[in-house]
Amino acid sequence: MELLKKKILEEGIALDKDILKVDSFLNHQVDVKFIMDISMEFYNYFKTKKIDKIVTIESSGIAPAFATAYRFGVPLVILKKQHSSILNQDLYETKVHSFTKNTDYMLTASKKFLNEGENVLFIDDFLANGEAVLGANRLFKEAKCNLSGVGIVIEKSFQPGREKLESIGIDIYSLARISKLDKGVIEFK
Ligand code: 5GP
Prior knowledge:
Layout: H1 2-11, E1 13-14, E2 20-21, H2 32-46, E3 53-57, H3 62-72, E4 76-82, E5 91-97, E6 104-110, E7 119-127, H4 131-142, E8 146-156, H5 161-167, E9 172-182, E10 185-188
Parallel strand pairs: 3-4, 3-7, 7-8, 8-9
Antiparallel strand pairs: 1-2, 4-6, 5-6, 9-10
Helix pairs in contact: 2-3
The chain binds guanosine-5'-monophosphate (5GP).
The site of guanosine-5'-monophosphate has 18 residues, from strand 2, strand 7 and helix 4.
């Protein structure tokens, strides 16, 4: 998506060779009109699939996922991050390693909101090592939901997320693919 690349070059801040900050439009301050445009890209790519729910992880995936759910006219389910296991029989839970914080968290979903046979589209702001998507997919499997696809706003293609997800047959659509980051350097694939 050319407009997204332009926005990343104008407003993104590459902190080092791993982390890109885009908090002026995506995950701190939100450019609502721009996020609505992003959601249209996801809608156009995935519209031929049957999508019953959009799913994301709190908190940085919520803006693009909310807008995409609006386009599809389906509910948005926000998976929750907990500091520790809360072993509750009404919840699905799985441990996930956080790329940005270098810690583990428990990813949880109420059993009420993921139902057997539902087709879910997972939307997130970034794809790095793929751990967030793989964790969400473990919850979908427990709930017997089908993962119809994954929509990512910014993929860091020099990290192994895409390979891991493609190796298990997941359809990933990324709106911008970054091939290289470094202090002050942002290059696209
Ligand atoms: P993964 O699980 O693919 O390793 O990492 C994905 C998650 O880590 C995303 O949900 C996102 O919140 C966060 N993340 C990964 N890389 C970046 C980055 O370069 N910048 C920001 N702001 N978040 C990132």
